[in-house]
Amino acid sequence: MNLSSQLIQRTLRLPRPLTRKVTVQRDLRVPMRDGVMLLADRWAPQAADGSLPTALVRTPYGRRGPLGGVFGRALAERGFQVLVQSTRGTFGSEGVFDPMRREREDGLATLDWVREQPWFGGSVVLTGPSYLGYVQWAMAGQFPPEIKAMIPLVTESALTLEFLRADGLSLETPFGWGVMIAGQERRGALLRQVALNGKVQRALRTLPLGQADVAAIGRRSDYIQDILGHSADTPRWAGLDHRDQLAEVTVPVSSIGGWYDIFLPGQLLDYQILRSAGRAARLTVGPWTHTSPGGFRISMQETIGFGLAYARGEEPAPRAAVRLYVMGEEAWRDFDSWPPPGYAASRFHLRPAGILAGEPPAESEPDRYRYDPADPTPAAGGVRLSGKAGRVDNTALEARADVLTYTTQPLGRDTEVIGEVSAEIWFRSSLPFADVFVRLCDVDPRGRSRNVCDGLVSLAGANEISRAAVRLWPTAHRFRTGHRIRVQVSSGAFPRYARNPGTGEPHASAVRLRAADQEVYHDPARPSAVIMPVRQAP
Are 21 and 43 spatial neighbours (Cβ–Cβ below 8 Å)? Predict the structure, then answer.
């Protein structure tokens, strides 16, 4: 009996296989419309009769490693034949890998090829996480009728663009991904990547940042130069946002995300667009980071239960449209929509002496702190691609002099927050350029503060008092009786976000770092607050 098959079944909690006898055809040549050949492996049961649906997985990370093997074996054992394809310019496929730019054309050409194969059974299901999910959305609006379902995991239709906002450069994730991609085909890449992590963290402090790729990998990287030199709204990224085509997606979609995932806001927006267009879509969001095994487990279960049913012309087992893991309660709950109804937008005001309360503040002096980009406020857990993501103890972070905290009294009853969270912080800096980072935390009766969600905005004209509108990550969290709600305000979360040098120079070329004195206002004319969708338990 195949030990890897048993391990996959147990780890992913999959149903028993229909067969454990699987064959693999290696290095199938798939022609693109410009003559480039992409390589693919086809996994299928030995007794396949040509009627099985095809699960299509397109990946830049290699088709023979654990990812390809898990997809290929697990799905081929349970009713699919599986095509795992290396995207253009990766792992033997011809051409040059220019991230995200050719996935629409190449994906559609691959579908054309699949439909012509003698083994094609008449239906296709698209599945996969992250970049493997983006390539699904890249084909939106031009699906042939043979596409029967999509199962995108921790991904969105405008991949990368959230990271590259002009008003908040998320540095660590795209830079780290660029470094990984640059060395992933070298011998011993996985071991090298572990060794590279420390080098990457040091490289992110390079001045100017435009030389950080050389510091990390010893050479220039076109992708890293692009992310450092071009914000999301520049022509360099034109054509990468496929959101305007989502309403044309008529196939059922099961979207799986995580509360600490890097793509969550965009993924939730994708879901809302589908539902607004009347499309068949369902949503699952768990307490996961981008790389949490729990999300992958659910996506594989959905590929088999949801995707395979539609591929066979059947209906999957019924369930609610939205299934959310409510943190704090630590339980799954079902809802009819996102965001769910019944949660009223409630303002929790920052007040003097570090108090957070529902009542507006009285006249008071602003709170002050000093931000020094040479010793930047560090990122602690939260939304990151690294293994340091997720819920963590914020004690050390909150002890820093450059972090303000505002905390409620112990709650007299459970308070549930589900939906979009934002903040309005009245702010002034001694410099024209500054960042405002806001984090929502849950403080337990022992005083341990754990992060729930957060966000950052970069300001120009910050030396004048202004209202900083900060969009935090969406969440589903229950603050228990006896717990306290806390809001942090600071000016960075490095290296998750690029440190603001305070000079107004472009990130790629800035060489000077200027410390700034920051002020946070909380008075009747400038009522700083965090705004949360709240429902209190009876």
Answer: no
> Does the pLDDT at position 1 exceed 60?
no
Which structure tokens are listed for 494?
């490095």
Q: What amino acid is encoded at 353 in this protein?
A: A
Task: Please provide residue 367's backbone torsions phi and psi, each rounded to the nearest 5 degrees.
Answer: -85, 150
Q: Model confidence over 243-285: pLDDT tens digits?
A: 999 999 999 999 999 999 999 999 999 999 999 999 999 999 9
DSSP structure string for 202-221? HHTT-SSGGGHHHHHHSS--
Q: What is the 3-state secondary structure (H, E, C) of 310-376?
A: HHCCCCCCCCCCEEEEEECCCEEEEECCCCCCCCEEEEEEEEHHHEEECCCCCCCCCEEEEECCCCC
CATH of domain 3-159+240-319: 3.40.50.1820
Name the residue with tokens 């009766």. Answer: 445
What pLDDT, in 10s, does the model give residues 466-487?
999 999 999 999 999 999 999 9
Sorted by where each begins, the domain ranges of the chain are 3-159+240-319, 164-235, 344-536
**359 closest CA partner among 350, 370, 367, 368:** 350
Whether residue 60 contacts residue 37, with contact meaning beta carbons closer than 8 Å, is answered with: no
